[in-house]
Amino acid sequence: MAIGSAEHHQGREYAGHKSRGLYVKVAASSLRKGNVIDMDGKLYVALSVQNIHPGKGTPVTQVDMRRISDGVKVSERWRTTESVERAIVDERPYTFLYSDGEGFHFMNPENYDQVVASVDVVGDAAAYLQDGMTVSLMTHDDIPLAVELPARVTLEIADTEPAVKGQTSSGSYKPAIMTNGQRVMVPPYLTVGTRIVVLTEDGTYYERAKD
Q1: Would the pTM of this model clear 0.70, i.e. be above it?
Q2: Matching CATH topology for 5-88 and 90-148?
Q3: Using CA atoms, how far apart are residues 169 and 167, in angstroms rounded to an integer?
């Protein structure tokens, strides 16, 4: 992932290697959600970043983070102009293989290397992962940090109320349970066994599958 142009002007002091990762010093105010930060020799992924400008006093950047090694969440506050060490992460397509007690297994289709993402990293995306699905995986030193799903997935309705005879309008929706266990609101004429397309961002119904 390229170093953003903003970082060339906002407190960038050096770029260097530690282990196999690339690091760069940036102003705290330039941090964004998803950035990986090296603090006291440990790596943290930013969950939220807020720049606070009080009427009086020094502007600060408040960052809520998750420690990558053990998932512990912490909060840190820096002066907005203070230099923070940020790790440059790698983001590329990976193929989801399977999940087990160890975690979620993904494969790089270019070199067949495999990585394992923890339950904490995958989060709510786990419900929509399907064997062979291509996802965008963010890693640092081959450690998965975040998973981005395709915008839409196709699932089957496992349980819902029977369709009402003659009701074809999609004006009112009814609850349904999909084969992945997730609840979704669907048009009243759809029945058990119907394949539907769902938006992974919020889990809402998009359309009836065309396959």
Answers
A1: no
A2: no
A3: 6
